[in-house]
Amino acid sequence: MLIDLGLIAFTLTLWTAIGFLGQIFFSMRFILQWLSSEKARKSVMPVAFWYFSILGGATLLAYAIHQEDPVFIFGQALGLIIYVRNLVLIRKEKQNAVMAAE
């Protein structure tokens, strides 16, 4: 299906839709972080930020692999490692807090 937006036009395929979906997931993390910070009235990084990062990064990685784009593949793969590592650190911090409280 041809999508014509005036300045740009593209053919919407399943893989293009997957790419857009990944970008939406990835962008949601910033909206979530912004809203959480506004609510707390200070800069905060909610745990859901990292889950959206993984969801968006994994979807975009699949798209990049399909496109056979080594630059995009490298960037998304490296990002996924960082996002998962942050969740591991958060989990360890929570476990340490529970153990300290006992």
TrEMBL record:
<dbReference type="InterPro" id="IPR014546">
    <property type="entry name" value="UCP028440_lipidA_biosyn"/>
</dbReference>
<dbReference type="GO" id="GO:0008915">
    <property type="term" value="F:lipid-A-disaccharide synthase activity"/>
</dbReference>
<dbReference type="Pfam" id="PF07578">
    <property type="entry name" value="LAB_N"/>
</dbReference>
<feature type="transmembrane region" description="Helical">
    <location>
        <begin position="71"/>
        <end position="90"/>
    </location>
</feature>
<feature type="transmembrane region" description="Helical">
    <location>
        <begin position="6"/>
        <end position="26"/>
    </location>
</feature>
<keyword id="KW-0472">Membrane</keyword>
<dbReference type="InterPro" id="IPR011499">
    <property type="entry name" value="Lipid_A_biosynth_N"/>
</dbReference>
<protein>
    <submittedName>
        <fullName>Lipid A biosynthesis-like</fullName>
    </submittedName>
</protein>
<keyword id="KW-0812">Transmembrane</keyword>
<dbReference type="GO" id="GO:0009245">
    <property type="term" value="P:lipid A biosynthetic process"/>
</dbReference>
<feature type="domain" description="Lipid A biosynthesis N-terminal">
    <location>
        <begin position="18"/>
        <end position="89"/>
    </location>
</feature>
<feature type="transmembrane region" description="Helical">
    <location>
        <begin position="47"/>
        <end position="65"/>
    </location>
</feature>
<dbReference type="GO" id="GO:0016020">
    <property type="term" value="C:membrane"/>
</dbReference>
<keyword id="KW-1133">Transmembrane helix</keyword>
